[in-house]
Amino acid sequence: MAEVESLLHKFGQDAQRIEDSVLIGCSEQHEAWFALDLGLNSSFSTHASLPKSEVETELQGSFIELRKAIFQLNSMDSSLLFTAQALLRWHDGHQFCSKSGQPTRKNIAGSKRVCPSNNIIYYPQMAPVVITLVSDGTRCLLARQSSFPKGMYSALAGFCDIGENMEEAVRREVAEEVGLEVENMQFSASQHWPFPNSSLMIACHATVKPGQTEIQVNLRELEAAAWFSYDEIATALRKKGTYIQQQNEAFPFLLPPKLAIAHQLIQEWVEKQTCASLPA
Ligand SMILES: NC(=O)C1=CN([C@@H]2O[C@H](COP(=O)(O)OP(=O)(O)OC[C@H]3O[C@@H](n4cnc5c(N)ncnc54)[C@H](O)[C@@H]3O)[C@@H](O)[C@H]2O)C=CC1
Ligand SMILES: [Mg+2]
Question: Whole-prediction pTM value?
Answer without folding.
Answer: 0.90
